[in-house]
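Consider a protein example.
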Amino acid sequence: MPATESVPTPQRVAVIGAGMVGLATAWFLQEQGVQVTVLDRTGVAAGASWGNAGWLTPGITTPLPEPAVLRYGLRAVLSPSSPVYVPPRADARLLRFLAGFARHSTATKWREAMRAYIPMNRRAFQAFDALAAGGVASMTNEAKSFIAAYRTEAERSVLLDELAHIHSAGQEIEFDVLTGAEAREVEPSLSDNVGAAIRLHGQRFINPGEYVHALGESVVARGASLVTGADVVDVRDEGTGVRVITSAGADEHYDAVVLATGTWLGQLGRRFGIRTVVQAGRGYSFSVAIEHVPSGPVYFPAQRVACTPLGDRLRVAGMMEFRSAEAPLDRRRVLAIAEAARPLLRGADLDARVDEWVGSRPCTPDGLPLIGGTRSPRVFAAGGHGMWGITLGPLTGELLAEQIITGRRPTELQPFSPLR
């Protein structure tokens, strides 16, 4: 359990990590009158926040461990072209994560985790709206269409089953079932190989890098210090506050600290009781020109490829690669995504790719994020969102800021204890 020591309401807080989650936490702490310093070893949106698909999809925000994952089998996950890839030489830490992931990839565990997500999903857009009302300059985009496209009706049945499970868990989402021809009427960028589709309603999307930079600018404009190139190597609870030390020798004292370091959460969090493995689930993306820019996201679930319109180009993203966050971009993954999307898109120049990118989503074995207090009453964690750090980042920041200021854990955060 988190420490119950009574501490004064913090006035100076350091947030370590300048991605969506860290900056949202900083912003909402400022709403409570806190003086915030944001520290990041690289820069704003330098990790998973920059090149992801940018979907705001609380309607389909679900636990990553699911029974379907286990159907891939060993041969599939060892293939470089597989949507889910595990390197043949996995280290002990990765094997521990995979064993836990497999244990949670059951229908019973999925339903349990899904119930934890529902209260967060219901409030996700409200937090984005609060940021917009507070002056964050980058807006969210309503998905005028959000198409999940398949070659066959049989392939489509997998998502229909999942939507039924989502509904039975208590989460509402509206959708239409379309033929391939009906899907092309809505979205002409789909090829004739698409024979079945589902159109989701009520979702949004953003340009994630642009949005997170706007959030950072808002945090600075409201009085925060944002220090980049600050590699934090030690965090120490000294009883009256927290000392934060960087590799460059900076040594500062704060009333409280938020660890929002994504895949690296465990490195600083271990001494404060965080034992859950946070594994890099690396995703890849690139952007291409396309004859007809879609009016909203396009998803190819069977291929695990996500497409998002960003200005006059299409961002194409995919892959769940469980390996070291520091590993270099593997061009085989980029090519695998391009080849998976090629038969299903019309007019996309998939051979003229720009902005090729890899980023590490912070994944937990049970598919639930780590949000809240630790064994220290002055150290808090916010990470492990897997694929949902963009969708749930602002609400995570709002609820965690509330907990830091009031000392009470919001009901929505109960299932996400960093000490579980």
Summary: The mean pLDDT is 94.
